Structure formats: structure tokens, C-alpha cells
Amino acid sequence: MFVIVTYDVGEKRVGKVCKKLREYLDWTQNSVFEGEITKGKLSRCLAELKLIMEAEDSLYLYKIENPRAIKKEVYGTDKSLDQLFL
Fold it and tell me: What are the residues whose beta carbons fall under 8 Å from the beta carbon of 13, sequence distance 6 or more?
């Protein structure tokens, strides 16, 4: 499945959350990650993030079961890592 994850966490935890998400997904913008992931890996990632996050933090997860149905348009500079190396 294809997922998009956005988060808003306390300043002390931003680096840890970002580092954890980089293990599973591609960074696209500040506090935004996306990519293909299996249900098992997603469950593992979320469990690890719950250990880092605190009650006032938030994380939004958008699941796209059929990635062929999504169309991504970028206006302005595309900051995706794959664009940096092409």
C-alpha cells in the first residue's frame, strides 16, 4: 500500500520521529513522509513511533490501498530525494 504520514511533535522529539520514519518511508517535506510499505512494516513503524511520541503529539496517516489511483502534482520545487539525484 502507499501511505502519506504527517506529524506534529514536540521539538525534543522531532529528530527521533524523523529518523524513525526515514527507516520506512521517503521524506518529501518537513514533517511529511510517503511511500510504499507493507502492512506488517507499517504496524512495526507505528508501534516504534508510539514509544517516542507523547500525549500532546499528533500523527496523521493517509492510506491509499490502490496506488495506481493516486495522482501526485507538485507545484514549486519538488524536494523528494529521488528528484535530487536524477
Answer: 52, 53, 54, 57
Query: Taking the CB of residue 52, how many other CB atoms lie within 10 A of it?
Result: 14
pTM of the model: 0.82
Q: What is the pLDDT of residue 86?
A: 43
**Amino acid of residue 62:** Y
Query: How far is Cα 36 from Cα 52, in angstroms, rounded to an integer?
Result: 23
Are the beta carbons of 5 and 33 closer than 8 angstroms?
A: yes
In degrees and rounded to multiples of 5, residue 40 shows phi and psi of -65, -45
Per-residue pLDDT tens over the stretch 23-80: 999 999 889 999 999 999 999 999 999 999 999 999 999 999 886 778 888 888 777 6
**CA 63 and chain centroid, separation:** 11
What's the CA gap between 63 and 65, in Å, rounded?
A: 6
